[in-house]
Write a structure and sequence with these properties.
The chain is mainly α and 714 residues long. Among the domains are: 19-88 and 301-403, no CATH class; 654-714. Helix content is 55%, strand content 0%. It is built from 31 helices and no strands. The protein has helices at residues 6-16, 51-63, 100-116, 139-151, 157-171, 176-182, 192-207, 210-220, 226-244, 262-278, 285-298, 302-314, 319-336, 350-359, 373-385, 389-403, 406-412, 424-439, 443-456, 460-476, 493-502, 506-515, 519-535, 539-545, 585-594, 599-612, 628-631, 643-652, 658-670, 687-700, 705-709. Helix 9 packs antiparallel against helix 10, helix 23 runs antiparallel to helix 24 (539-545) and helix 25 (585-594) packs antiparallel against helix 26. The radius of gyration is 34 Å and the shape is elongated.
């Protein structure tokens, strides 16, 4: 059998196809196992983070591994791409392929085949898409078998070739009977018979005949051939393990751990321990240790499993292996505790205990954490005995935060005068202190603290996170303008953009449109101002504010800024409904600046919004802004169009022309086409009102093209 990594054998396809994010707080949007999927949570240890993020940060900090975090933009004042959430563009990144090891394996296989006189035409490459027990029936395991044949000097050239060809047959699904028939010429008293026995045992294993496979492997485990003895002992474990789960698939193809045969799983555990006792550094030792994790999962021996993961995670040799181990851990514990939480620490597993207890601090539907103070106190000895009390202290602070006990946090934490680079635990404690001040609504103290923490932290990721906290604090305190004052510590354009769109007065928007630090911010400010001028009926202001574009050397364009494209205001009316003529937006607004109730101009303003969908877009940059997103939320956001209001105004106008009133009736009804839901903004009107409009259009203006065009009143 081929040697596998612990992850590969420990999970097989079972976990590859199992739900991947049960221990996580977010809906899966980027395959966390992909190299290009970066950490999307906050740079803290937080119940709200993905559990995998928390675990990877914790272990990476201890082992000084580089974290897979987002890159800092070249100029944060001109970019809105640094935030604490999934970035869609990560999916466009392709991970580099590691071709060298595969090439080396191919070279070895080619040499072996030449020595065994096997044609390259016989090679069957089926390493991909292998499932469950078949995962090891590949060219790698065939190569190991070939190596054993070549190393056994008791075999003749012909015997080696016959056995090798039979192994190739196993790759293509040869049965026990077919392998037996292909090797009938082997002498009964030759060493070749042992290899034949192995191939037949393997065929039985892959066919799911575990009873006969076990009998043969047990016989071979006593062989005087080293490779056969070691591999057979390893396969005894795999046979028992697969036997234990052969009836564990539910009616709909789902894995049901309750259907595991515990007697067979315990036998697999015994065989695994026997292998490790005899071959502690053997070629399958790593895989066997990985299998032990799976066995303990099957046995639902959670404390033992936690201890195994504690050791596995600590022993990760590099960042990639740590990432793989974290994925495996999350799959197992996430599936095991999908609908419940761990509320007591596991002996000998302080790190695993910390991650799981942190997860238990997430608020439930009653806005309360699952973990209680009594349960946390009961877990304290595990952290004390392992000298990991800082982790327990972090849990205590988070529990106080979840319970709203802000005073306890403020009393327990001292603001730092300095912080070590990448010390996530210390930084997390400082963040909880600042959040406690915000919880107390002590905005002045919170503002001063966040500014101090910005100066203390030397980490870019932490600094951007603190900027979001500081911006939120200033918004809550009613001092949004301070975010845009000279020398402001909030330089992240994403955060500044969201505040401009939701909190800035027209005067502040004008200020930033003229004196903003760069074209990006000026464009955002001016676009927001112009939309608000229109939606708030400041038509004369709009005509003057358009001139502020002269302060922008080069308005920003492209996907990253398509929500603030100033060219939209160059609308010339051509896109308006066929049969209804509109002049340019500039001319339309000029009319409205003189006569705000001009029916034709109001309809054409509605056409501008209908055809361009122009509004102050809060969705594009709404994720990953932490508490700032809550701080800027308004019950009625600025800059959202309400075309219905224009149509209703025209419908009610005693002086509106027939052409304009009939069009307004048509458009007002069409707001609900075809779904019945309002797509025009403003308050919904009920179906009876739409019926009245429909009747009015059909009876009072039967000759209009809009009466003839309209068939329903949704």
């Amino acid at each position: 059998m081929v040697r596998k990594t612990p992850l590969a054998f420990a999970l097989f396809t079972l976990l590859a196809t199992a739900p991947q994010a049960f221990a996580s707080s977010d809906i899966e949007d980027c395959k966390w196992s992909d190299d290009h999927c970066l950490l999307k949570g906050t740079p803290t240890f937080s119940p709200g983070n993905d559990s995998r993020d928390n675990l990877l940060r914790l272990l990476s900090q201890e082992k000084s591994f580089a974290l897979p975090i987002q890159a800092m933009p070249e100029d944060i004042t001109r970019s809105r791409d640094f935030y604490f959430a999934y970035h869609p563009q990560w999916d466009d990144i392709t991970s580099p392929a590691a071709a060298a090891p595969e090439q080396n394996a191919d070279d070895t296989l080619t040499r072996q085949m030449a020595e065994l006189h096997i044609s390259a035409d016989e090679v069957i490459r089926n390493n991909d898409d292998l499932e469950n027990r078949h995962v090891s029936n590949n060219m790698g395991s065939a190569s190991q078998f070939f190596g054993a044949l070549l190393a056994d000097t008791s075999l003749t050239v012909g015997q080696r070739q016959a056995l090798a060809q039979a192994r190739m047959g196993l790759l293509s699904g040869a049965t026990r009977e077919q392998i037996d028939a292909s090797l009938t010429t082997l002498p009964e008293d030759s060493g070749a018979q042992r290899y034949k026995t192995y191939l037949i045992a393997a065929a039985n294993f892959y066919a799911g005949d575990y009873v006969n496979a076990e009998q043969a492997f047990a016989q071979l485990a006593k062989s005087d051939r080293p490779w056969l003895a070691e591999t057979a002992q390893y396969m005894l474990m795999r046979t028992a393990l697969n036997k234990s789960s052969q009836n564990s698939v539910g009616e709909y193809g789902d894995f049901d751990i309750a259907r595991i045969n515990h007697q067979d799983a315990a036998q697999a555990q015994t065989q695994a321990q026997a292998y490790l006792q005899r071959w502690p550094q053997g070629q399958y030792a790593d895989s066997t240790r990985g299998m032990l994790r799976r066995i303990n999962w099957y046995l639902q021996a959670w404390p033992q499993l936690a201890g195994l993961y504690e050791q596995t995670l600590k022993q990760s040799a590099d960042a990639q292996q740590l990432r793989d181990n974290v994925i495996e851990y999350d799959n197992v514990y996430g599936m095991a505790f999908y609908d419940q939480s761990v509320v007591e620490a596991f002996p000998d597993a302080p790190r695993v205990s910390y991650i799981e207890l942190l997860r238990a601090l997430r608020l439930n539907s009653d806005k309360k954490p699952t973990l209680t103070q009594a349960q946390l106190d009961a877990s304290k000895p595990v952290f004390e005995q392992s000298q990991h009390m800082p982790l327990w202290r972090n849990l205590q602070l988070n529990l106080w935060m979840a319970a709203g006990n802000y005073a306890a946090i403020v009393q327990a934490v001292t603001p730092a005068q300095q912080l070590s680079v990448h010390d996530t635990l210390a930084f997390s404690e400082q963040v909880l202190y600042g959040e406690a001040l915000m919880g107390q609504k002590n905005w002045t103290a919170a503002r001063d603290f966040w500014q101090q923490l910005l100066n203390v932290s030397k980490d870019n990721e932490q600094q951007q996170y603190v900027q979001a906290k500081l911006a939120a604090t200033l918004v809550y305190s009613g001092d949004s303008a301070a975010i845009f004052a000279p020398g402001s510590a909030v330089t992240n354009l994403r955060f500044r953009s969201q505040v401009l769109k939701t909190q800035a007065t027209p005067e502040l928007l004008r200020q930033q449109a003229i004196h903003g630090p760069n074209n990006e911010e000026r464009t955002i400010a001016l676009h927001t101002l112009l939309v608000r001028d229109l939606t708030e009926n400041r038509f004369a202001d709009w005509l003057n504010d358009r001139k502020l574009a002269r302060a922008i050397n080069q308005p920003v364009v492209g996907t990253a800024f398509d929500d603030v494209n100033l060219s939209v205001f160059d609308w010339n009316g051509d896109a308006a409904q066929a049969g209804y003529t509109c002049r340019s937006l500039n001319e339309t607004v000029t009319v409205l600046s003189r006569k705000a109730d001009d029916a034709h101009a109001l309809n054409c303003l509605g056409e501008f919004f209908r055809t361009t969908q122009t509004h102050v877009d809060l969705w594009k940059n709404s994720s990953g802004n932490d508490v700032l997103e809550v701080a800027i939320t308004r019950q009625e956001p600025f800059g959202q169009f309400d075309r219905q209001r224009y149509y209703q105004q025209v419908i009610a106008s005693p002086t509106a022309e027939v052409e304009d009133k009939s069009f307004a009736l048509y458009r007002a009804i069409m707001c609900y086409s075809p779904s019945g839901y309002n797509e025009c903004g403003g308050e919904d009107v009920d179906k009876s009102q739409r019926k009245d409009w429909f009747t009015q259009l059909k009876t009072q203006y039967p000759g209009s093209p809009w009466a003839q065009k309209l068939k329903y009143y949704w």
